[in-house]
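Researcher: Next sequence.
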Amino acid sequence: MPLIPKAWRPGQGGARGEVAAFVACLVLGVTLVPLVVWFVGSRSLGPYTNGGALEFWRDDLLALMHAELPHWIVALGPYAALWAWRGVRRFFSG
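Model: Next structure:
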């Protein structure tokens, strides 16, 4: 099994594969990334004022629903990282 699924490679999965990659990255950006941000922040800056990880995640979801740009940038970070990875691979593959 390849390290990167076929649908995530440019030109391999078509529009369906790109939508699948976008949805997978968005799910990661909305679920996992805020928890990583909370963990790193709580270790380096101290405890979150409004509570624990679930409160941080809830506040993040509320900010996403209110279309706050910084939270959307964080949520779309995995998709941007995927495109950066694709660009680096294309650059070095010739």
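Model: The chain has four helices and no strands. The radius of gyration is 16 Å.
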